[in-house]
Amino acid sequence: MADNSSLTFLQFFLPVFFFLSPSHLLSLLLPAEIPTVPIYYLAKPQPRERAWRNQRGKKTLLSLTLVRLCEET
The organism sits in which domain of life (predicted)? Predict the structure, then answer.
């Protein structure tokens, strides 16, 4: 025989499900937040990113310092 607590749960919630719209039923069944995968790049590059890509190959103080440090080791 079923537990009394489960009977009261069904007796209470079963009529409620008939009055809810399908979207409300789905919101009860699905988790509140759906985990997503982080996006590391934008579909359309921002002006700062375009400027950074245009500088590829140019000599900067950082690149020259890194080259010098790598040559010393």
Answer: Eukaryota
What is the domain range of residue 30? 4-72
The number of domains in the chain is 1
Neighbours of 43 (CB within 10 A): 5
Q: What is the predicted pLDDT for the residue at 68?
A: 76
Phi/psi for 2 (5° steps) reads -75, 155
pLDDT digits (tens, 9 = 90+) for 9-42: 666 666 666 677 777 777 777 767 766 666 666 5
Separation of CA 46 from chain center: 21
pLDDT of res. 57: 60
Torsion 45-51-54-60 (CA) sign: negative
